[in-house]
Amino acid sequence: MTATHTSRAAQRTAAPGAHGRRRHKPASQRPNWLAGLMGWLWLAVVIIPIYWIVITSFKTQSNYYITNPLVPPGDPTLDNYRLVLDLDFPLYFLNSLLVAIGTVVPSVLFAFMAAYAIVRSAGASRFLRGVNSLFLMGLAIPLQATVIPVYLLIIKLQLYDSLTALILPSVAFAIPLSVLVLANFIRDVPKELFESMRMDGATEWKTLWGLAFPLTRPAVVTVSIYNALQVWNGFLLPLILTQSPDKRTLPLALAAFQGGPYGVNVPAVLASVVLTILPMLILYTVGRRQLLSGLTAGFGK
Amino acid sequence: MSAINARRTSSAVAPKARGGVILPWLATPALVVFAAFALIPLVGVLLLSFTSWDTLGEIKLTGLESWRAVLSDPGLPHALWVTFLITALSWAVQTPASILIGVFLAGRQRYRELLAVLYFIPLLLSSAAIAITFKALLDPNFGLGAGLHIDLLNQDWLGTPSLAMGVVIFIVSWQFIPFHALLYQGGVRQIPRSLYEAAELDGAGRVRMFFNITLPQLKYTAITSSTLMIVGSLTFFDLIFVLTEGGPGDATRALALDMYKRGIQANLMGQACVIGVILVLVGLALALLLRRLGGRNPNASQLEGA
């Protein structure tokens, strides 16, 4: 090993010619053509279905059957969107929005407070250590497996078929991961800052909202977007905990739309798909940098 | 109990005296909601598995009746097998792909940053939307294969048992590889540059560095990612429900779907809870196994370490 090392090093200094330089240029400085090619190929796999959804949603139903599926329509139409908007989609949209806001705000606030307590106590409180282990266990348990008791609980609380029924379990399910990611970020706040707040006589409550919360805003954004995505796209809870059409959230409405009389109208179904993605796409465009870096940092430490 | 602990804390760590009293209270709202809608149902699923309940009538204690019914049902080994296949195959497809893409995205080239943004898009879609999309794309009469006249693509994808399973694996991978690639990207970026610099001085090529440095250094990322992947795939429901409803026949009837069909559709809540208990136990066992594999618990040390 050492022998190879020295001989290679010697070779490099001994042969600075053009041929030698090319051969010994470190791997990190050579462009990696193969990886680039695979990267673009994967992009094609990811984007083609998305592209197809978008262009098809502007086709008329009759054109859908006869035109090349990957060529955009020559005469794009908005009829599909009009049809979908006339079919109560604005209501489902509102339902999804209410459930998302109703879940994200409490889940992030509660998780932040818990994460703050866990980090600040630094393992000194047995109660908080227990809470922490409990949330970590929550990450390993498939909580969806407990939907039947959740269903019973919601019936007993007389919340069945209401948006509140969707919000409460969603908050609970969102808490473990939120606490984990937020705690990782709060830990990065320099200890001296906490110390100086304490010297100034600030309470923990004031330090929490006045120092830790503003300083970890990227993490709060990350967790909020992530939780919003989970709830916005959630399917099992709405399916089990509601039954009236006017309580449907978007994913449930999509499935019902496709299974219903309009289901054969594929361009209209896809227009409804586009409408459900749009808000998340906007959220992603706005918070992309924070979401991507926040998720990697939150998990990867 | 918390007050006692807090007091002990404050005496042990003098500077925390003021905060020691309030800190446990800060965790209470999260704990209460989590306890009410996650912990109680977790206990509830076990208790309900010893009862029979048809959603309308009384909940009757029936001992092991539901367990006997489920365990003697030939549908159970089949659902277990389907779940195992989906979990194992989707792990085997997603993990290498996510590692490669994660390593690729860890490079700081501008085009890779652009690709990272686009790669993430499938994660914005609901499983219902994805299932609806692929159902239309794979339609034997009007789908992509038929429209482009490519016979290879034009199969009865969702009507043939083995193909339907393949489609589920493919779609799951399409949907979740971006997320796991992101985890690996973060993992790769934390590997000290000096390791690669030393290897380059030794004349190691890209492939050797990948196998000798990158892969071993990604161990803990792989454990986190695999845990999320496996626990997640045990409960895949939305996608299968919308895409195939477990079909053709029972070919894609995984445990989570089986639970829904027994419980909500057939009103056999006791039996559905038996499946729920099995899911929780399998998930927990796999998570513990993966943790053991890691030699330490990366999550706990993340939270409790300095």
Automatic annotation (TrEMBL), chain B:
One GO term describing the cellular component: plasma membrane
Record InterPro entries: ABC_transporter_permease, MetI-like, MetI-like_sf
Bilayer-crossing regions: 21-48, 79-105, 117-138, 158-184, 218-244, 264-290
Subcellular location: Cell membrane
Domain ABC transmembrane type-1: 80-290
Entries under Pfam families matching the protein: BPD_transp_1
UniProt topology in membrane: Multi-pass membrane protein
Keyword entries, A-Z: Cell membrane, Membrane, Transmembrane, Transmembrane helix, Transport
GO BP: any one term: transmembrane transport
Family: Belongs to the binding-protein-dependent transport system permease family.
PANTHER family attached to this UniProt entry: ABC TRANSPORTER PERMEASE PROTEIN, INNER MEMBRANE ABC TRANSPORTER PERMEASE PROTEIN YCJO
Protein's name in the database: ABC transporter permease subunit
